Amino acid sequence: NNKETITTTTTTTTITMVETMITTTTTIITTMTTTTTTTMVETMTTTTAMVITTMMAIMVTKTMAITTTMVITTRGITTTTTTTMGIIITTKNKNNNNNNSSDMSSNYSGPHGPALPPPHPSVALGFNQSTFTYDELAAATQGFSQARLLGQGGFGYVHKGILPNGKEIAVKSLKAGSGQGEREFQAEVDIISRVHHRFLVSLVGYCIAGGQRMLVYEFLPNDTLEFHLHGKSGVILDWTTRLRIALGSAKGLSYLHEDCHPKIIHRDIKASNILLDESFEAKVADFGLAKLSQDNVTHVSTRIMGTFGYLAPEYASSGKLTDRSDVFSFGVMLLELITGRRPVDLTGEMEDSLVDWARPLCINAAQDGDYSELADPRLENQYEPNEMARMVACAAAAVRHSARRRPKMSQIVRALEGDASLDDLNEGGKPGQNLARGSSSDYDSSTYSADMKKFRKTALDSQEYGASSEYGNTNEYEQRRN
User: Which leading EC class covers this enzyme (predicted)?
Assistant: First the structure.
C-alpha cells in the first residue's frame, strides 16, 4: 500500500528544426531531475538517455522526430510535458506552488534575442556552417571597404571581417554571373562545409543576396605562401618552415584526393592558395570553388591565364584537370619552396618555366647530392641535406610529363616524412633515372614548352589579366599592411 505507482507514456511528434530538438532535450532533463523524488530521478535518467539516443539517430538518418516522456507519481508531484508546434512546453504543479517552471515558445532565440528565421535544412543538418545576411557581412567588413580588402583573384574579392563576437573571418565575394541556382549553390556549399581537416581552411558560412554569392572562411593571420616567397613580407622562410608548409599542404591535398568520397579535385593548387596561420602552419584554401564558379568561358580562361605556370601539360591536349593535375601543380609549388623562384616569369626575361629550368638540375642533384644550384640563395645553404633530397625527389616526380607516372599525394606525404623510400616515387629506378620525364609518347618536352609559350602570350595579351593577376598588387588574399 505504501508503494509508488509510476506510469510512463511515450508520444512521438514530427518537427522541422534540429535546434528545437536540442533545446527540448535540455528542458526535459532540467525539469524532470529537479522536481522529482530519488526513485523518479533514476527512472528519468534512463528515460532521458533514451531521448538522447533517439536524437542521435535522427541526426544520422535525417528523420526529424522528438520523443516526449510523461512521468506521473503519487507523492503529490505532478509533472506534465506537452508538445506544441514542435516546441516542448513544460509545466510543473506541486502542492506547495513552487514558481520555478520553465516556459519556452517558438519565438525564443537566446537571452533577450529577437525571433530568428528557421535555417535552411542543409544548414540545420550540416552543423558546420551558418547563413549570413548581406547586412551582417557588410557590417563585419565595414561596408566591404577598401581598407578591409585582402585581395582578389580569379574567383572574386576577399575582405577581412570581424563578427560581433570578435571572431575574424575572410569574406570571399564570388564573381557574378555563375548562373547557378540557389539550391545548387547550397548543395555544393554543404559538401564543402562537411570537409574538415587540420590542413584545410574551414568554411564558416555563406550568404546568398540576389545574384550575389559570398563564402565566409576562417581568417588566417600570416597571409599566403606566395606573399612570403615572392611578396614584400620581409620575412625569409627558413628551411624548417618550408618543409613544414610542404608537408601540411601535402596532407591537406591528400585528404581531398583519397579520404573524401567522392574525391575532391582542387584544380587550382598554387602558392597563393596556401594560407598560413600564426605558427606558419599551412592550410589549403579554395578547394571546391572550381565547381562553384563554373560559369562561362571567359571566367575560366581568365583563371587559367593567372595560373598557367602551375598548369599540368595534359590540360593543353585534353582540357581536363584531374587529381594527377593537382599533383603536378603541387610539384611546381615544391620547386618554389626549394628555389625561391616564381613558376613563370611574366616579364618574358626568363624563357623557360620554373619546371623546365629545374628538371635537369633535379636530376643532377639527385645523382651527385649537390643542391647548391637549386636551393634558394636566401637559405644560405642552411638546410638538412636528406630533407632537401626528399623534397627535390618529390617535386621532380610530381612534375613528370606523364600524368599516370606521377605519385599519389599520400606517397608524397610519406616521402616528405621520411617514412618511404624514394624508390617508391621513382618506380624502383635509381635516383636520377627517369626522375622527371615520362615516355615521349605521353607528352614531349618541346610540345610542353610550346604550350607554355602559347599560354604566356595569351595571358600577357589579355586585357582582363591585369585585373585578376595572381602576381600583381591585388594578389588573392595578400593582406594589406600598414
Answer: transferase
